[in-house]
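Subject: sequence -> structure tokens, single chain

Hey, anyone have a minute? Need the predicted structure for the following. Not urgent.
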Amino acid sequence: MNNTANLTAEQREAVIARSMARVERVRNLEFNSTVEVSIRSRANASLGGGDRDPALREFDNAKFEAAFFIGEEEDSLSVQQESRNQTVAGYYDPESESIVIVSDAATPTLDGEGTLSHELTHAVQDQRLNLSVQRRAETRDGYNGVLGLIEGEANAVQQAYTARCGAEWRCLSPPDSGGDGGDPSPPPNWGTYFLEFFPYSDGPDFIASLREGDDWSRVSAAYDDPPRSAQVVIEPDEYGSFEAETVALADRTGERWERVRPPDRPDYGTLGRSGLGAMFARTIYDDSNSTSLVAGQEWLNLDGTEVNTTDPLNYDLAVTRGWTGDRLHVYRNGDELGYVWRIAWESPADAERFADAYRALLSYWGGDRVAEGVWVIDDGPFADAFRVTVDGSEVTVTNAPTRAELGGVRAP
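Reply:
Had a minute. Here:
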């Protein structure tokens, strides 16, 4: 069937019903009820956002600054929302139990069946499994772990579904690759994009490690014990055995600094291996510097000279191997923010390797070493002072607006 904006309501309902039947066949799991699907223009799609608690905003700003994603002059929540607004192709809403397909066309149309099959998978997850497990994740690492299951499964179904289009099934044709005559716009921020793309890239391989042909029973069972860390999605053999370390980090602030504690969530952050990988990989696409800290061929999964379309990115970077846990505390002094970030590793050698790479990252963003273990970035979006210490298998980064204030954020 051709891609067209001229499907009647009856034809569109027939396509949706057919897609539900195909998802059931691919996933070997039946829907309990029909799913409502609407198609909206990007301008009219409700993609979240709105007011957030000031403490959450401060905490999130510091967390994404720590990963060198978003500088001090930008608001991290707004940047992330802008990225979602630009890149999301559809979503399933558990509250209304319905799907919204987002169309870039002036007249919203159902462009192919890839996004539809993906979102229908979320619907059957909600009806038959336990989609609410994602609400248990309290940190970015935990969130990317459980999404490796949820989004990994949806991507695996989508890939199997679209692979049958043409040879086995007649499907709506996707838009021409040329679109409106140009390449897709890059995301507003490569760092946050890589962080959020992780479960879509590495998740299908995690699902493949649980599947045995058409037997998805171990995938279904995983909803009772979902991955609690991105590490398990990166290294599927560790599912069921790996537990991230609970990193100890006591506050040692001066009297003018106080801990930022967002309401209704943990008062610490854990970025995990997916966050660390994105932190280094972002330098590949940063046009402010002609160098990068990760080789493109290490970050991109290549089939010959082409990027693998089903698993394009490799989050198993050498510099992040041996990660066992991390913990980030954020502090405020009036309008100023600082943080302490402790990253734990399997061995002192892993810790030293990461510390060397992190010092190179400071240098990349314009940092100069001004004393033993102390670096200062004078200009740019990440202008601040940093103290980097290694103690056995732990690396601790202290950040403050100036070198003089490092001791206020954390006494040495």
